[in-house]
TrEMBL record:
It is an enzyme of class 3 (hydrolase). Residues 291-360 form the Peptidase M10 metallopeptidase domain. This is Matrixin family metalloprotease. GO terms for molecular function: metallopeptidase activity. Its EC number is 3.4.24.-. The lineage of its organism: Bacteria, Bacillati, Actinomycetota, Actinomycetes, Streptosporangiales. Keywords: Hydrolase, Metal-binding, Metalloprotease, Protease, Signal, Zinc. Residues 1-26 form the signal peptide.
């Protein structure tokens, strides 16, 4: 506000008094505190207006002073999940719409539409998981992150891998599709000219319970969930060039996506949005830049099985989480895949048991 001379302000007040005398704003209005001292006397607006002191520098009675955000809640940029408490009060730091970084550099945008999110990466040397549960009713957001690296050599406490057809360990995500649902997805080809077949086979491997554990090639009773390719997608999965889960668009999109800003060891990323216990959208992207992919025939040295990687990601789509530990490395849901390893394209016992626990038998 400009600093007008006191004489001018006094003249303006007298003019207002002449214009509005007697009838307007009679009685006492806004009594209490304002602007330190008496601002308008009883000669203005006939009666006492703004009597006393206003804005004296103290909050009105019964009003708590505004909270100062915690030190880790910086106003801009990416926030670290490791620096914040597991449960964050929205009143202390509203994470909705903010970007959060978890283990192994895994990043996601906290949903602002009331849904929650689980993000995953699978790497050549390990994996990562970032879980973000938004509870508007409780006024809080819960953030958890896990990640590991494949140990070099034989680490202390090493346990030999269990046989794939005997290892029944599995972990579930916070959500799943409704039992009996058909998950409709669209395919995004990207710009590298890579084929749809490995991704389509991968989804089928999961819902059809494909395995090498018997002579039939499939477990006897598949899980009670289906899938359908609904055609080409007109845009990429909601996963950025840094393998960050962005904002959902209510379309399940699976395919190839260039992620130049992701870590050099990242093979694929997936994002699952859910409301309560129910999954509402999933996106999956295989790294189309800087990776050599094995899609048919014999495996060229240093290449990765597209079908095996996509089958692992399809497990996340259906609600399976990573299973850590060298003793479980023969599971499809182990969080790393070596070059020319197509074993994860077929389900181990634990992968199948996890699906049946989620969906029952068809």
């Amino acid at each position: 506000m400009r600093d007008f001379p006191r004489a001018a302000r006094r003249a303006g007040a007298m003019a207002a008094a002449t214009a509005l005398a007697g009838t307007a704003f009679s009685g006492t209005a806004f009594s209490g505190t304002a602007f330190g001292g008496t601002v308008f006397s009883s000669t203005v607006f006939s009666g006492t207006v703004f009597s006393g002191t206003v804005f004296s520098g103290t909050a009105p009675a019964g009003t708590a002073p505004p909270r100062r955000p915690p030190a880790w809640c910086k106003p801009g940029g990416t926030l670290s999940a490791r620096a914040m408490p597991q449960r964050v009060k929205i009143a202390d730091c509203d994470l909705r719409g903010r970007t959060v970084r978890g283990a192994n550099g895994l990043v996601a945008v906290v949903p602002s539409d009331g849904t929650s999110l689980v993000a995953h990466e699978i790497r050549t040397d390990g994996g990562a998981e970032l879980r973000i549960a938004v509870d508007p009713r409780a006024g809080e957001i819960t953030v958890g992150t896990d990640g590991g690296r494949v140990p070099q050599g034989r680490p202390r406490g090493f346990r030999a891998p269990a046989a794939a057809c005997e290892d029944g360990v599995h972990r579930a995500e916070p959500s799943r599709w409704p039992k009996g649902a058909t998950v409709q997805w669209r395919y995004y080809a990207g710009t590298a000219g890579l084929p749809v077949e490995p991704i389509a086979k991968a989804i089928s491997n999961m819902v059809g319970a494909r395995t090498d554990c018997n002579g039939e090639g499939r477990f006897a009773v598949p899980p009670d969930v289906g899938e359908r390719n609904a055609g080409q997608a007109d845009r990429a999965p909601n996963i950025t060039g840094g393998a960050t889960c962005g904002n959902r668009d209510r379309v399940n999109t699976f395919g190839w996506h260039a992620m130049p800003d992701a870590g050099r060891d990242v093979l694929a990323a997936s994002c699952t949005w859910f409301d309560g216990p129910t999954t509402v959208e999933t996106d999956m992207a295989l790294q189309a830049q800087g990776k050599r992919w094995w899609t048919s025939g014999s495996c060229p040295a240093g290449s990765y099985s597209a079908e095996a990687v996509a089958t692992h990601e399809a497990g996340h789509v259906l609600g399976l989480a990573h299973v850590e530990g060298t003793e479980h490395e023969n599971l499809t849901m182990a969080p790393s895949i070596a070059s020319c390893d197509d074993g994860p394209a077929t389900l181990a016992k634990g992968d199948y048991d996890g699906l049946i626990a989620l969906y029952g038998g068809r």
